[in-house]
Amino acid sequence: MKETLKAGIRYEHTFIVPKSKTVPALYPEAEEFLVMPEVFATGFLVGLFEWACIKAIKPHLDWPKEQSVGTFIEASHLAATPPGLKVTVSVELVAVDRKKLTFSVEAHDGIDLISQGRHERFVIDKEKFDSRLEDKKANA
């Protein structure tokens, strides 16, 4: 981790919601999801928060040797967003506790505030992380 990885880092990311990021596409194996409204899925919203947080801190890590993984998410989903609307995600790194990073997250679709919350990530050494995964697979 570079010395520049400090609270106060902000990042804004925009994404136009395609049909492939709606509730029916979240788990196509789930017949219940297939009949639900075609609106931006909460699961994909969480992924968008993660993406924005990664983009925010990437310049402050020894990328790709150092990366981060999500460890906690607490976020509302306040309004439905149909495909075609642009979602703007704003994230701010609010705390750094060794390798634990805490972000404030918010999303807006140009009409409504659609989400706000908190997300935590942990900085990893990619090689060590992958090695532990291989051990886990071998012992499964």
Automatic annotation (TrEMBL):
The active site consists of 42, 50, 77
Origin organism is Desulfopila aestuarii DSM 18488
Residues the entry annotates as binding CoA: 70
Give the Pfam families listed for this entry: FlK
Matches recorded under SUPFAM superfamilies: Thioesterase/thiol ester dehydrase-isomerase (SSF54637)
Which residues does substrate bind? 70, 121
Q: Where is the Fluoroacetyl-CoA-specific thioesterase-like domain?
A: 35-127
The record's listing under Gene3D superfamilies reads: Hotdog Thioesterase
- Protein name in the entry: Thioesterase superfamily
